[in-house]
Amino acid sequence: MTKTFDIAVFQGDGIGPEITGPTLEILKRMASVSTGYNLRFRDAPAGARHYAQTGESLPAESMKIAREADAILLSAMGLPDVRYADGTEISPQIDLRKALTLFAGVRPVTVKKGQNTPLNMPADREIDFVLIRESTEGLFYTQGRGEVTKNEARETLLITRDISEKLFEFAFALARSRKEVGRGPGRVTCVDKANVFRAFAFFREMFDAEAARNPDLQADHAYVDATALWMVQKPWDFDVLVTENMFGDILSDLGAGLMGGLGLAPSADIGLEHAVFQPCHGSAPDIAGKGVANPFAMILSAAMMLDWLGIKHDNADLRQDGTRLREAVEDVVSQGRVLTRDLGGSAGTDRAAQAVLDALFVA
């Protein structure tokens, strides 16, 4: 009997609904022709617009839908002119990370041959690595609760054994799965600042312990400042990078820049039981309603969702469709015929999404 997977859908703010709609249509089309799985979507209201209307940014019912779902697809969230009383942004995605203990923030960085990139890249090179950002603690631990006086401000960096050991186990498992399908050499790099901070020496110690449990894989270390340099000079050398929350926040945007912008940057926040998939970019309210938003990062995030569901439930059809969807977007982008204006083209949201559908079902 074909299994049906429930997907909680957070439509988002600004351009969020505009890029969610065509993404869901692609997923529905893929599921409709598959004999290995079905998808059922449940809308979960949340975000800045919902807060402005109701006073709630993440209603209890939406959290319940998220907890009960097999996976969570979340679009761009937040609006610059809608904030909490303390001035901080509306960010249900961070609330979900903490509530569901989504400790592994997965940020793929992929540049195929022929794809435009700010780098002066050798013609025979491609970029294909994954940055894993711890997403529940680190320097974000006291978010909204930092101590501020007239003369001082303090935030607390927290690194725990419980979360770090889970994070490193995830990182080595990902490197192994990438190696098995020929996407990487099976190497994990711990990105830290262990030469300065005791907390990062602690972080590195736990990484080394996990490396010792995976002798079939390569493991090394890099300081975060050197990593930023090497991501520009030789990004094709990386496979899986794993790092603290703030470092990962910064480096993931650098990775998006290598690809040509946030419009091509998907992400996932993954825990032991739950996972959220969302584009890295914001809600872009300045272009909302104009039909010009880039849907590629949202579609790529959906591809990551299919792959994760396939791994979690040992479903080859889901994994295959996740790969097909990712490669369809990569083909459209590398060919350069249908690009949105942030990528130097003129295509609108619907045309860009249709190009992906055509790559899946027509080509």
TrEMBL record:
Q: Annotated Gene Ontology MF terms?
A: 3-isopropylmalate dehydrogenase activity; magnesium ion binding; NAD binding
**What is the protein's quaternary organization?**
Homodimer.
Q: Which cofactor does this sequence's record say it needs? A: Mn(2+); Mg(2+)
Any coiled-coil ranges, and where? none
What's in the keyword line of the UniProt record?
A: Amino-acid biosynthesis, Branched-chain amino acid biosynthesis, Leucine biosynthesis, Magnesium, Manganese, Metal-binding, NAD, Oxidoreductase
Q: Which GO BP terms sit in this record? A: L-leucine biosynthetic process
Return the GO cellular component terms, semicolon-separated: cytosol
Pathway listed for it is: Amino-acid biosynthesis; L-leucine biosynthesis; L-leucine from 3-methyl-2-oxobutanoate: step 3/4
**SUPFAM superfamilies reported in the protein's UniProt record:** Isocitrate/Isopropylmalate dehydrogenase-like (SSF53659)
Organism classification, top ranks? Bacteria, Pseudomonadati, Pseudomonadota, Alphaproteobacteria, Rhodobacterales
Family, according to the entry, reads as follows: Belongs to the isocitrate and isopropylmalate dehydrogenases family. LeuB type 1 subfamily.
Q: Which residues form the Isopropylmalate dehydrogenase-like domain?
A: 6-356
Instruction: Please give the InterPro entries that the UniProt record associates with this protein.
Output: IsoCit/isopropylmalate_DH_CS (IPR019818), IsoPropMal-DH-like_dom (IPR024084), Isopropylmalate_DH (IPR004429)
Q: State the EC number(s).
A: 1.1.1.85
Question: What is the originating organism of this protein?
Answer: Pontivivens insulae
Q: What is this protein called?
A: 3-isopropylmalate dehydrogenase
**Which reaction(s) does its UniProt entry say it catalyses?**
(2R,3S)-3-isopropylmalate + NAD(+) = 4-methyl-2-oxopentanoate + CO2 + NADH
Note the Pfam families from the entry: Iso_dh
